[in-house]
Amino acid sequence: MEQKIKRLPDAELEVMKAVWAAEEPVTRTQLEQVLGSKKQWAPTTILAMLTRLEQKGFLEREKQGRAYLIRPLVSREAYLQVESQSALGRMFGGSAKNLIAALHQCHALSHQEVQELADYLEQLKQEDE
């Protein structure tokens, strides 16, 4: 049975981003170096977030010698799908068109990006045929 992926609070998402960026199991010390310098979080804060993420099923810690190796159980791609659907639903009524319209209205899309989107949509149409 597949577990439903839930949206993470911003701080826990930052920890997961660091775990995903490592591309291989990491130790808490390695995460503390990355997150401590980037976010100025205390080691106890990082440990608390790792514990919560483990309880939520996002990562696992495996004892190896005196340290624990931390690896993700949820891939970045799987989480990104959930987060994208959630944002689309919450902010744009589930409409991708409304998202693109909002980006256009705030001048967040260059002419080149609009063309890339058009090309991508055309590619999707051809795949569906």
UniProtKB/TrEMBL annotation:
Q: What name appears for this protein in its UniProt entry?
A: BlaI/MecI/CopY family transcriptional regulator
Among Gene3D superfamilies, the record links this protein to: Penicillinase repressor domain, Winged helix-like DNA-binding domain superfamily/Winged helix DNA-binding domain
Superkingdom of origin organism: Bacteria
The record's similarity note reads: Belongs to the BlaI transcriptional regulatory family.
- Keyword field contains DNA-binding: yes
Q: Which SUPFAM superfamilies match?
A: Winged helix' DNA-binding domain
InterPro entries from the entry? BlaI_family, WH-like_DNA-bd_sf, WH_DNA-bd_sf
Assigned keywords, A-Z = DNA-binding, Transcription, Transcription regulation
